[in-house]
Each structure stands twice: as structure tokens, then as C-alpha cells.
Amino acid sequence: MSQQPSSLSHANQRVLITAAASGIGLVTAQAFMAAGARVYICDIDAAALADTLLRYPQLTGQGCDVADEAQVAALFQAALNHLGGLDILVNNAGVAGPTALLEDMQFADWQRCLAVNLDSCFLCARAAAPILRRQGSGSIVNMSSTGGQYGFARRAPYAAAKWAIRGLTRTLAQELGPANVRVNCICPGSVSGERIDRVIAAEAAKTGQTEAAVREALTAIASLRTLISPEDIANTILFLTSAAGARISGQDITVDGHTETL
Fold first, then answer.
1. Domain membership flag for residue 2
2. Element (H, E) at 221
3. pLDDT at 93 > cutoff 90
4. How many separate domains does the chain show?
5. Bridge-partner residues for 143, per DSSP?
6. With left for phi above 0 and alpha for psi between -120 and 50, is residue 85 left, alpha or beta?
7. pLDDT in tens, 23-38
8. 196 shares a domain with 117
């Protein structure tokens, strides 16, 4: 991996990333390690987590459902014991949720989508806040979405959760700012990988379109006419949590190739 500029260095920083056994989370973990950080991860997928920890022995982590209060408490206790403290929390966990019209949606599916996307941010930030406040430094990055900036037909719980994360982020920035703790959120567009493949397949099944047509429509709404890569997101997180982003807080940073409409 290439050497990072000094302003983006995270030497000896202690980082906790949720849902980091694959996708954006794993790429972000790799970016932090390349920048000199010590990284602790969690994931609900036990098989993926075991494989990732085997492939990256410098990583440490554990299984965790971050929508579960007791499991989040255990996660933070283990992470703090291993890292000796905390400097950066990346709330990356999320699920696409159901693809359906609101009137056809099951309440349990609605609840689970909000729990994983929104409750996880609350639980993890609640655990991190007193630690960062006491030391008078640190950074939290929450994962929102362009789905949290627009209406999103057939994805109501996902959009609702992602809108709420933006409000949570700004409120946390107000509460923690006097302690020199920054809080921001990332609003990715459609990120290439297995997750968007599943979203595309679900949308195609619900609407009767081909998967190719759904994929083409996703890229057509961005001015740059492209999906976003996990590396695009990781690079932005690295910047926001570095000395180069020291005066950025309470912001929604959109990384989407400029979404024109949803």
C-alpha cells in the first residue's frame, strides 16, 4: 500500500469500524491500517469475519449485531481492552431493507431496517461519546446515503433511517464539539459490490425490469455516469478523521458522482 501524506497520517490512532468484514468497511479498515492506525472491527457475518481476520492478521475483531444493546456493550469493552482507548468510530453497519411499496411492507421488516441502520449508530455513538469527550479529541463518522437526501420509492425504511442519521450526526456534532470531537456523515451514492448487486436484483424482481436496465438507471442519475467505489468512501473517511479535516464537523459529505435525482 502507498505511503500516506503526513496530514492524512493516522499513526497510532485507535479505530473501531462496524460491519467491516467486507465491502466498504473492510476497504476502510485497510486504508486506516495503511495510514498507521490500529483497527478493531466487528461483523454479524461470522464466516466473513473469520475469513477476513485470517487474511489480515493485523486486524482484530469479533462478531456483533450492532442493533443489539448488550452486544454493542460487549463490543466496546473488548475493543477498548485491545486498543487501550478509542480515537475514531466509523458507524458503517447497514442493510438495504425491504423493497416494496409502503402498504405492502411488513412491520417487522421496517423495524429491522431501522434497527440496523439507525439504532446501531445511536448505540455505538452513545458508547463512544463519553470516551472521546473525556480525552478531548476524536472523530465519529456515520454512514448515511443519497437515499437520505431524496425520497426513495419502494425503500421507505432505508430512506427514513438514512435521513435520521443526518439529523443524529448534526446533533452529536453540537453536543461533542465543545470537547473537540468531530462528527460527520458520509452520503454515498450507489457503491459497486455485492450489496448493490442484491439491491439491483430486488428492484428488478419487483418492477419487472432486467437487472441491466436497473443498473443503467442507477448510473444515469449521476452526472459522472458511474457507480462509486468502496475506495472513494474510504478515502473520504480517512480525510475527515485526519488532521487535514480538523475543522470539519456536523457535515453531510456526499460521495456520489453528483446525483441529479432519484
1. no
2. none
3. yes
4. 2
5. 186
6. left
7. 999 999 999 999 999 9
8. no
CATH number at residue 72: 3.40.50.720
Cα–Cα distance list, 152 to 61, 90, 95, 246 (Å): 34, 25, 15, 33
The amino acid at residue 186 is: I
| Mean of pLDDT over the chain | 92
Question: Are residues 153 and 221 part of one domain?
Answer: no
Q: Is 179 left (phi over 0), alpha (psi -120 to 50) or beta?
A: alpha
The 3-state DSSP class for residue 68 equals coil
Range of the domain at 222: 190-227
Catalytic sites, residue numbers: 144, 158, 162
Phi and psi at residue 206, in whole multiples of 5°?
-75, -35
- Domain assignment of residue 238, yes or no: yes
DSSP state of 118: I
Hey, which residues does 15 pair with through a beta bridge?
39, 88
**CA gyration radius, the chain:** 18
Do 200 and 121 share a structural domain?
no
**250 and 144 in a common domain:** yes
- ∠ CA(193), CA(168), CA(124), 5° rounding? 70
Do 203 and 113 fall within a single domain?
Answer: no
pLDDT, mean of residues 191-197? 77
Q: Given a cut of 60, is residue 6 above it in pLDDT?
A: no
Confidence of residue 92 (pLDDT cuts 50, 70, 90): very high
pLDDT class for 168, splitting at 50, 70, 90? very high
What is the predicted pLDDT for the residue at 1?
43
Would you tell me how many other CB atoms lie within 10 Å of the CB of residue 160?
Answer: 19
Query: 207 and 130 in one domain?
Result: no
Dihedral of the alpha carbons of 147, 150, 152, 155, in degrees to the nearest 10? 40
Nearest CA-CA partner of 40 in 7, 89, 5, 73: 89
